[in-house]
Fold this sequence. Notes:
Number of domains: 2
Number of helices: 5
Number of strands: 5
Strand order of the largest sheet: 1-2-5
Distance between the termini: 57 Å
Shape: elongated
Amino acid sequence: MKTEAAKCAAVIRKYMKAKGVKASVTSKNYSMGDSVNVKIKEIIDPKVLNEINDDLAIYQYGKFDGMQDLYENTNVMDEIPQTKYLFIEYDYKVADVFTETLVEILKDKINYVGPNPEYEYQQMARGILYGREQFMTFGEACAAIIEYCNKNEAA
Length: 155
């Protein structure tokens, strides 16, 4: 018999497949709760990532309030399988290649002066990947990465 988290993971796996996004979806059960982890295995447009986050939010039945140190059941729906915690993120192997290349491009485009420029470049690259950085759009970043790779391949 499947646990509630395993049922939730199965539904999310079907959703990701229908969306055409390569992802690993796993569930864990532990004392006082469970979780479902979605690791995206390819770079996708941040708009699609936001859509996935919005669509899958129904599968988490609440949220943790760190100020009060308690979990609040704010989204309980008995008609669908749900999990206590739902994590949606890029697989680090995929995200690291994207951000490392983008950091090199950002270094060429801007000259950041501050106490820790390497950290700032990495934060900008992650922001672009997740659609939170305004310096460069995701489309511009992808075009710049392709150009960068072609230039380095020709050299």
